[in-house]
């Protein structure tokens, strides 16, 4: 008899925390990525990626829930590493390459999970699945290039004054790729129950 599939509990917890923060703006304000507060409150560097603005939370959280669940069912360790490395690299990129004073959303985490999954398909499959992984990577690169050129309105309507942090998406994607490459074939093995 096959082993029962486990529930993606880490993913469920992350999405629940993000949804809870939408309902608790004071708590969200204590976690949000705020450049001026990072030195004294370093948790914002990673946890800020779980804070969302209400207007775009649904898209970010749907992407996070879907891709994080896929990774968690495949390998919880790889999922956790992708989330951590993507968050750290995205935050570093925001500090080094932008003048953003604040940042919200899990899109950098979703980018890492997406690129990691696409790369896993390229490395571990053949035929149409491998081609699908290559096409997904090309699509991601094109999306980031268009966002960097200010053409983000092609993907979603954003509230006035909202800027897309294309550099955070690129850095998150790099994080996902680095983890999959570093973990090699072990990234594709399911964790032991």
Summarize the structure in words.
By secondary structure, the chain is mostly helical. Helices cover 64% and strands 2% of the residues. It is built from eight helices and two strands; from the N terminus they run ααβαααβααα. The chain has helices at residues 9-23, 25-31, 44-47, 57-74, 76-97, 107-124, 127-148, 166-183, and strands at residues 33-34, 102-103. The protein has a two-stranded antiparallel ribbon with strand order 1-2. The longest helix has 22 residues, at 76-97. The protein is globular. 37% of the residues are buried. The model has no long low-confidence stretch (mean pLDDT 88).
Q: Secondary-structure blueprint of this entry?
A:
Elements: H1 9-23, H2 25-31, E1 33-34, H3 44-47, H4 57-74, H5 76-97, E2 102-103, H6 107-124, H7 127-148, H8 166-183
Antiparallel strand pairs: 1-2
Helix pairs in contact: 1-4, 4-5, 4-6, 5-6, 5-8, 6-7, 6-8, 7-8
Key structural traits:
64% helix, globular, mainly alpha, single chain, two-stranded antiparallel ribbon, 8 helices, 193 residues
Computed CA radius of gyration, to the nearest angstrom: 17 Å
Helix content: 55-70%
Q: In DSSP terms, counting alpha (H) and pi (I) runs of 4 or more, how many helices?
A: 8
The mean pLDDT is 88
Low-confidence stretches: none
Please indicate the percent range of residues in DSSP E strands (runs of 2 or more).
Answer: under 5%
Number of strands: 2
Spatial sequence of strands, sheet with the most strands: 1-2
Main sheet record: 2 strands, antiparallel
What is the N-to-C succession of helices and strands?
A: HHEHHHEHHH
In whole angstroms, the N-to-C terminal distance is 15 Å
Envelope shape:
globular
Secondary structure category? mainly alpha
């Amino acid at each position: 008899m096959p082993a029962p599939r486990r529930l993606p509990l880490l993913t469920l917890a992350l999405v629940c925390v993000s949804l809870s923060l939408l309902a608790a703006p004071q708590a969200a304000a204590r976690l949000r990525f705020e450049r001026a507060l990072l030195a004294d409150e370093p948790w914002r560097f990673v946890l800020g990626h779980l804070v969302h603005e209400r207007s775009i939370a649904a898209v970010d959280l749907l992407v996070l829930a879907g891709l994080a669940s896929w990774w968690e069912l495949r390998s919880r360790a790889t999922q956790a590493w992708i989330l951590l490395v993507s968050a750290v690299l995205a935050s570093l990129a925001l500090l080094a390459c932008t003048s953003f004073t604040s940042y919200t959303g899990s899109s950098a985490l979703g980018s890492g999970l997406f690129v990691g999954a696409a790369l896993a398909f390229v490395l571990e499959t053949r035929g149409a699945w491998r081609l699908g992984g290559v096409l997904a990577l090309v699509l991601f690169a094109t999306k980031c290039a268009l966002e960097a050129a200010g053409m983000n309105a092609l993907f979603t309507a954003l509230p006035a004054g909202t800027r897309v942090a294309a550099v955070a998406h690129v850095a998150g994607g790099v994080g996902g790729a680095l983890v999959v490459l570093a973990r090699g074939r072990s990234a594709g093995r399911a964790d032991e129950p």
